[in-house]
Amino acid sequence: MSGPPKPKSIAVVGSCFIDEACFVPHMPQQGETLLCNSYKKGFGGKGGNQCVMVGKLGGDVRMVAMVGEDANGSAYVTNFADHKVDTRFVLRSQLPTGLAQIWVDEAIGDNRIVVYEGAAGQLNVDAANNLLKDGCLDGVDIVVCQNEIPLDTTLHFLRVAHEGGKITMFNVAPARGSLPDACLGYVSVLVVNESEASQISGVEVSCVQSATSAATALQRRGARTVVVTLGAQGCVLLEEGVAEPEVLACPKVEKVVDTSGAGDCWVGCFAYYLSVGKSMKECCRRAGEIASVSVREKGTQASYPAASDLHPDLLS
Fold first, then answer.
1. Which of 34, 77, 234, 238: disulfide with 215, CB 3.0–4.6 Å?
2. Whole-model pTM above 0.85?
3. pLDDT by residue (tens digit) across 38-67?
């Protein structure tokens, strides 16, 4: 008697940063100096966050990235190994490992983030081609990218993965201006939040209706399935081949502590559930449930639940 199908293998291509978070009573005004109430250092970067979330759920995942030849870089590689992430394709650079400075408003859990790319910015197309020659996408079924490494590199990986028949996910975070239509044709699943959807679609997103309009515009430009995440409002899913968009709510959270990394938690969960054969709708629903858990704790990866922390229904 055969068992369940083997999960698809995932490669996450992207950034690895060290997060330094200050928890403040309010966001500082221009010229204002604030004393923070607490400080937390941890592992971050959108690529690293998404990859670790897949690992925490037990997915078959590898990281394709560049970190520094420094203590932070070594610690990050160890962190990946602790979460059963394949690190064969994590390169080292003479530049320092990237850094994210995060301010979190303790009153509402909102944040402001400034990033120094460091080593992640050195992952250029030449480095990508060397990684591809070394087999970084060999045997991979799903490739997940974000927008914190050079865009040319990201688009190169998306094109190669698409031409190789792989499922591609592009989380355009952060948005850095418009995207060429040609690159959207390489994307199986495009994931954007309100501000990112507004920037790349030209439709100002402020509600479910405008999110649907933005998703429709992006699908017309070439993306096959589009998801616009709306924070506490859930998300809008416009799936390839399905005429009507789906609006999926997420659980209400009484006390939001820290939203840092919640979007990455969502993307990592979506990728994992896609890898085990769940429908697009179910991927969105489960990702929303788990991301709503992450905002109840401080930190990014440190706030992500492991499979053992979740209700069995989320693992079936």
1. 238
2. yes
3. 999 999 999 999 999 999 999 999 999 999
Q: Is 313 a catalytic residue?
A: no
Q: Which of 152, 181, 264, 313 is the catalytic position?
A: 264
Asked, as a colleague might, if the bond just before 96 is cis with ω within 30 of 0, I would say no
CA distance 316 to 293: 18
pLDDT band at 5, cuts 50/70/90?
Answer: low
Question: Which residues, at least 6 apart from 146, have a Cβ–Cβ distance to it below 8 Å?
Answer: 14, 15, 46, 47, 50, 154, 170, 171, 172, 173, 267
List, for residues 232-253, the tens digit of each pLDDT value: 899 999 999 998 899 999 899 9
Alpha carbon 2 to its chain centroid, in Å, reads 34
Separation between Cα atoms, residue 41 and residue 258, nearest integer Å: 14
Which amino acid, one-letter code, is at 152? D
Q: What's the token pair of residue 54? A: 């897949």
Q: 232: annotated binding-site residue?
A: yes
Question: Strand, helix or coil at 42?
Answer: strand
β-bridge partners, 21: 40, 102
- Look up residue 28 and give its two tokens: 């500082």
215 labelled binding-site residue = no
Q: What is the pLDDT of residues 76-104, one digit of tens each?
A: 999 999 999 999 999 999 999 999 998 98
Mean pLDDT of the chain: 94
CATH superfamily of 12-171+250-302: Ribokinase (3.40.1190.20)
| 164 annotated as a binding-site residue | no
